[in-house]
Amino acid sequence: MTAVRLVVFLCIGQIFGMASFASFATLAALFMDMWSLSASDVGWVSGIYLVGYVVGAPILSGLTDQVDARQVCLWATVFTAVSVLGFVLFAEGFWTAMLFRALTGLGLAGTYMPGLKALTDRYEGEKQSRSVAFYTASFGVGAALSYVITSQIFDISNWHWAVAAGAVGSAVSWLILWLALDHRPPARAQSGEAETHFLDFRPVFANRQAMGFILAYTVHNLELFGLRAWIVLYLAFSHKKLVGTADWWDVASIAAVVTMVGWAASVSGNEAAVKWGRQRTITVVMWTSTILACVIGFSSSWPFWLIVVLFLIYGATVTGDSAAITAGTIASAHEGQRGATLAVHSTIGFTGSALGPILFGFVLELAGGETNPDAWGYAFAAMGIAVFLGPVALRLLSQRQVPA
Questions:
Q1: Low-confidence ranges of the chain (pLDDT < 70)
Q2: Do 93 and 52 meet the contact criterion of CB atoms below 8 Å apart?
Q3: Which residues, including other chains, have CB under 8 Å from residue 313's CB and lie 6 or more apart?
Q4: Cβ–Cβ contacts within 10 Å for residue 67, how many?
Q5: Is residue 85 within 8 Å of residue 167, measured between CB atoms?
Q6: Contacting residues for 80 by C-beta, under 8 A, at least 6 apart
Q7: CB–CB of 273/250 below 8 Å?
Q8: How far is CA 23 from CA 20, 160, 262, in A?
Q9: Could you give the angle at which helices 208-243 and 278-296 cross, rounded to 10 degrees?
Q10: How far apart are CA 366 and CA 147, in angstroms?
Q11: What pLDDT, on the 0 to 100 scale, is given for residue 398?
Q12: Which uninterrupted H or E stretch holds 143?
């Protein structure tokens, strides 16, 4: 398979594998009513998905330095499909929803970064940064389509079938990955190198440059996943406040478009990093996102079209730094430690992902709940303040500029 086809196939496989990503967030209002969930409960169920990811990431991503990443991806895709079906068949409240969403997040840990490792093992050279940008951006496309698929299937059936679509997507993803990836042992296994041991991440933590990008990725994910978990409810709140009703199909579609903007923004952000410098680009994007986050949450009484425009811009700034950060981490990894570096990148980074929805829900409830306009503003501002720290960490820990 040619390099271009490999990138395309892996991106499509990732998109199908993300079909279950936003199923809970899209139907959060339904589950709040059906299971009597509070805002904090919704934040925990949304966040536990990423906790599952964090638990699995160091093992499954680190394993790709020892075995072919293809095998990790294929088995994890099967696991994801089974966990989604478990939610459909057995979820009946807060605790069971927590269990199966955590398991689904664990499945994601075996497909996202291991898939990136499979790509970079097979696509070396000067254009690798661009391939990383397209792959990481496909995550956002998959997340966007997850909103659309869930809402449209729910519109014509019920929540069981809407969530079950995620299992179908995982099955399609498995087939694509099986066809696209050849059998290829990791480079260290081929050369006989033994620079690090499985789950020995000390060399990665000693790599200051990589850790700067990893900490920036952490606050990036906190903001990104906080937004993805709560955007549908916020748009529904604003829409209902302005016109007296919430059209769930419309707000889910808007959330999908906002998320889809991230694909172009992520790829463009990496191209800007190549041209103007990685650290400078990341700083501008993150601090612009901070300003928008501190404004957008207080806009619920503004004209709805203006709110949508703000979210489209915000969707670009939230994701515009994603590929540039991940490409920076890969470029900073020492020889023979790419899988371990991606494991730390993913584990610490997605700890921020787990904290984002939880932090948002906690601040929202503490400030007055989901019916209080100002509470939404404080919740968004909390994410903005967190993401402001990303460039600070990057500057403090990066001793030199990473070549684009």
A1: 1, 124-127, 186-198, 241-249, 399-404
A2: no
A3: 292
A4: 15
A5: yes
A6: 17, 20, 104, 107, 108, 110, 111, 166, 167, 170
A7: no
A8: 5, 10, 19
A9: 30
A10: 28
A11: 76
A12: helix 128-156
Retrieve residue 371's tokens.
């019916």
Task: Give the residue from 49, 44, 43, 24 showing the smallest Cα distance to 34.
Answer: 24
Dig out the tokens for 245 from the structure. 């009703």
Buried b (16+ CB within 10 A) or exposed e, 311-322: bebbbbbbbbbb
Q: In the prediction, which pLDDT does 403 show?
A: 44
Contact 103, 83 (CB under 8 A): yes
- Distance from C-alpha of 249 to C-alpha of 264, rounded to nearest angstrom: 24
Contacts (Cβ under 8 Å, ≥6 apart) of 101: 24, 45, 46, 48, 49, 52, 87
Give the model's pLDDT for residue 196: 55
Q: How many residues does the chain have?
A: 404
CB contact set of 100 (below 8 Å; sequence gap of 6+): 83, 84, 86, 87, 90, 91
State both tokens at 98.
């927590």
Torsion of CA 146, 109, 44, 239, to 10 degrees: -20
Residue of 320, 323, 192, 177 whose CA lies nearest to 261: 320
> Which of 148, 155, 115, 157 has the alpha carbon at shortest distance from 132?
115
Distance CA 17, CA 110 (A): 11
Given this model, what pLDDT does residue 191 score?
A: 46
Running DSSP on this structure, what letter comes out for residue 182? Answer: P
Q: Which structure tokens are listed for 303? A: 């004209």
Quick check: helix, strand or coil at residue 300?
coil
pLDDT digits (tens, 9 = 90+) for 79-138: 999 999 999 999 999 999 999 999 999 999 999 989 988 888 887 666 677 788 888 888
Q: Which domains does the chain have, with CATH numbers?
A: 3-186+203-397 (1.20.1250.20)
* The token pair that represents 150 in the structure block: 């869930």
H helix count then E strand count, the chain:
18, 0
- pLDDT for 195: 52
